[in-house]
Amino acid sequence: MENSAAPVRTEELAGNQEVQSTTSRGGALVELTPTPGGLALVSPYHTHRAGDPLDLVALAEQVQKADEFIRANATNKLTVIAEQIQHLQEQARKVLEDAHRDADLHHVACNIVKKPGNIYYLYKRESGQQYFSIISPEEWGPSCPHDFLGAYKLQHDMSWIPYEDIEKQDAKVGIVNKLLNQPMALPPHTESNLQGLTH
What we know:
It holds the Pfam family DUF2452. By secondary structure, the chain is α+β, with helices and mostly antiparallel strands.
């Protein structure tokens, strides 16, 4: 009886060495428990043996591959976030530039009350003073007295749109207004049907 138990211990020891070598390569196996759930097993060797050494190698390779996939997945997600940050930074820069331009234009000399929705023409005198006029260079013709710097449309939020962007901005506003004027795409209100919930 005692002689038959000795090989089991040797084989179990070899299995434990395989477990330890696999653990050092990155894989991990469940710890051996002689009495799982408080119940003694009939043959701990048969329930805890490591099995084929190639199984342990495959486990280590699987853990390594999982690490590589996790790293690649995290890298992809961080790349998307970095692109979003760059886009937000670009938007923030444009917002600040537009705000600076709008503030400068509101301080330009003007002898009329500016009204949203109208286009104003920016000129520069020989003295360097800039001023707004409601007369376009075409209306002045060859007798335009001062240098023309550009035309701007005053928006209802008191921001300014350069003349060359007016058509594009009006198209955007038109799309938004069309969406706002459409009825909600929801089914008409009906009384709640509770037939399946009540007896």
